[in-house]
Amino acid sequence: MNEQLYENYAVLDAQIKELTKKKDEIKVSILEDMSVDKSPSMVTAVGKFTVSLLKTWTYPALVTEAEEEFKALKATQESNGNATFVEKPSLRFTQIKL
């Protein structure tokens, strides 16, 4: 077993989580800054930043009920063997609590 390989993975995973957290914090500040300037885009030395609107949908009960029925139908087909699956190797890492 190559212990260094596992340690490298764990260190990178922790760094990615920390960098993602910092990026998200900076993103909020950039959005606030751009809203003050009322500018939909900003060109800088490192690239162009653009604010875009993303839609968040809320569906009526008819749709959410149909979704629940669909999930139940999928579960039934999985349990009775009519649905098929393919298994692929996947890596799961759980960091120790410090």
Describe this entry's structure for a reader.
- The protein is mainly alpha-helical and 98 residues long.
- The protein has one domain.
- It has two helices and two strands.
- It has helices at 3-37, 61-79; strands at residues 41-44, 47-50.
- Strands 1-2 form a two-stranded antiparallel sheet.
- The mean pLDDT is 94.
Report, as a whole number of angstroms, the end-to-end distance. Answer: 24 Å
Q: In this structure, how is the largest beta sheet organized?
A: 2 strands, antiparallel
Could you spell the SSE succession in H and E letters?
A: HEEH
Task: Say how many strands there are.
Answer: 2
Question: Total helix count?
Answer: 2
Structural class determined from secondary elements: mainly alpha
Low-confidence stretches: none
Shape: flat
Task: Give the strand order of the largest sheet, numbering strands 1, 2, ... along the chain.
Answer: 1-2
CA radius of gyration is 23 Å
Please give the domain count: 1
Strand content: 5-15%
Oligomeric status of the shown chains?
single chain
Give the helix level as a range of percent.
55-70%
The residue-averaged pLDDT reads 94
Topology:
Blueprint: H1 3-37, E1 41-44, E2 47-50, H2 61-79
Antiparallel strand pairs: 1-2
Compact description:
The protein is mainly alpha-helical and 98 residues long. Helix content is 55%, strand content 8%.
